[in-house]
Amino acid sequence: MKFSNSLFCVLPAIGLVATSCSTSDDAPSTTATPHGLTSAETPKNLSLTNACALAVKHHPSLATYPMDRRAADARILQATRLPNPTLTVDAEDLLGAGSVSGLGAAMINTLFTQVIQRGGKRQANTEAAQSSGKVMDAQYEVLRRQVIRETGELYLDAVAARENVSFLEATLKRSKETSALVAQLVEAGRVTIGSVQQAKLEVQKTELALASARKASERASRALTAQWGDSRPTLVTNGGLAAPPGTLGSKSSQKAGLSKHPKIRYSQAKVEQSEALLKVARANSRGNATVGGGFRQANATDEPSALLSVSLPLPIFNKRQDAIVQMTALFEKARTELAGAERALETEFSFAWSDLVSTHQTARKIESDLLPTSSELFKSAEESFRAGKITSLEYLAAQQQFQNIRSQWLTARREYQISAARVQALTNRSL
Questions:
Q1: Residue-wise pLDDT tens digits, 176-205
Q2: 90 vs 350: CA distance, rounded Å
Q3: Model-level pTM?
Q4: Which residue ranges make up each domain of the chain?
Q5: Closest C-alpha among 369, 381, 430 to residue 405
């Protein structure tokens, strides 16, 4: 099975918080680590969707979201609560002398007071708490998209590294066959001893390249599984990177998806939050009233009486206009940041699309022209060498040229897939 061209078609399939990472047959075990982090074992058959889901569920940068969400919900509930009433009890004429000595002439005042919020403070505080939760959700989506993109690119690296190992294994086998053939031709007097040494050198060079490729494959595999806390490498059995399609989709159609990018939603949420905080500042500019009621008990006459109190702040020294000016400036800043985020995404998309077109053209050129030509030349050189029409050095040169083209073909496909992944990460649309 070839690697899909639509790398980020897995984005809609992975929910806000992934709860399932693989099929039931290959479900990985999950272990808890300190401070609420979790990790998972890599399943035997690792697909791109499974890898991204595992990363979303266990990546450290996303681990704190459930706790942040609970805290945000608590803040919203807190903002909807009314202020608690206050009970005040005081006594007058205590511990006097003469006729008012002791508690006989004391007056006990019991007063219940309640703050009355003015200016729509409770509604403004509730909207501010809700907007803060939206900012947190949008920020999580930004991080989530980043984790999926990183995981997808690491998966691509692992697939490409594994394919490179397979190619070098086949190359080593061919080099050994060539070396054996050259040795036979030496005995027949058709080639020189130098040709034998050259063939053996090619075998040694390929063995060295293969050893390096295997280490690189293991390193790429470890980097991939580290996304979900598994320190062991995994064997990516994917058949290799797919060739690019014949044509690319519409640039304008892809660009339309930028409006739904998490960074845009995050900046929009910041604007809403700033606007809500501005409403809070305006509401706070109106002071709260405090009303109270209770009774007075005069021990000397044993006659109770009612108490009533009303208090209003006097905005003489602090009219709380500075907070409004501050929040207005932050609101304007948030709107400017939104415009900046839109411009930055458009610029990033422009470069990503340019890279996609370039890598697509390169890969298609190698696939349609260079690869068939080098394959035919190598096949012809092998037949000519066996027939004694060319020297072993000419044959080895043709073999090396073919191997170089195959290596370029692998690199071109990887670069195309990376470019496609970056475009799709920006637009969340398949090419």
A1: 988 888 888 777 777 777 788 888 998 999
A2: 73
A3: 0.81
A4: 7-82+122-285+320-427, 84-116+287-319
A5: 369
